[in-house]
Amino acid sequence: KRYQNGNTRTMIFKVPKIVSYLSRFMSLQPGDIISTGTPPGVGLGQKPPVYLRAGQVMHLGIEGLGEQRQKTVQA
């Protein structure tokens, strides 16, 4: 199995900067989620590249908050 694992330390822009920027254009509410992209270890950057296949399950979690899962399907 291959895993991507990241946290806010690896982000190009820090959380306060992102929230400040987005707040110029929209009202953020408690519970809003800001999608910021992928952590290090994305499949395209591996040698050879690794892509998702139908039937694989992705887990997205935030420590102390919870986890969501998505299963890939054939397009």
Question: What features would you describe in this structure?
Answer:
- This protein is α+β, with helices and mostly antiparallel strands and 75 residues long.
- It contains one helix and two strands.
- Helix content is 12%, strand content 16%.
- It has a two-stranded antiparallel ribbon.
- The longest helix is centred in the N-terminal third of the chain and has 9 residues.
- The two termini are 23 Å apart.
Outline of the structure:
This protein is an alpha+beta fold and 75 residues long.
Strands, total number? 2
> pLDDT under 50 segments (min length 5)?
none
Helix coverage percent of residues? 10-25%
List the strand order in the largest sheet: 1-2
Could you give the distance between the termini? 23 Å
Tell me, rounded to a whole number, the average pLDDT: 85
Strand content: 15-25%
Biggest beta sheet summary: 2 strands, antiparallel
Computed CA radius of gyration, to the nearest angstrom: 15 Å
Assign the structural class, choosing from mainly alpha, mainly beta, alpha/beta, alpha+beta, or little secondary structure: alpha+beta
Overall 3D form: globular
**Number of H- or I-type helical stretches:** 1
Order of helices and strands: HEE
Strand-helix topology:
Elements: H1 15-23, E1 57-62, E2 66-71
Antiparallel strand pairs: 1-2
Primary descriptors:
single chain; 75 residues; alpha+beta; two-stranded antiparallel sheet; 12% helix; globular
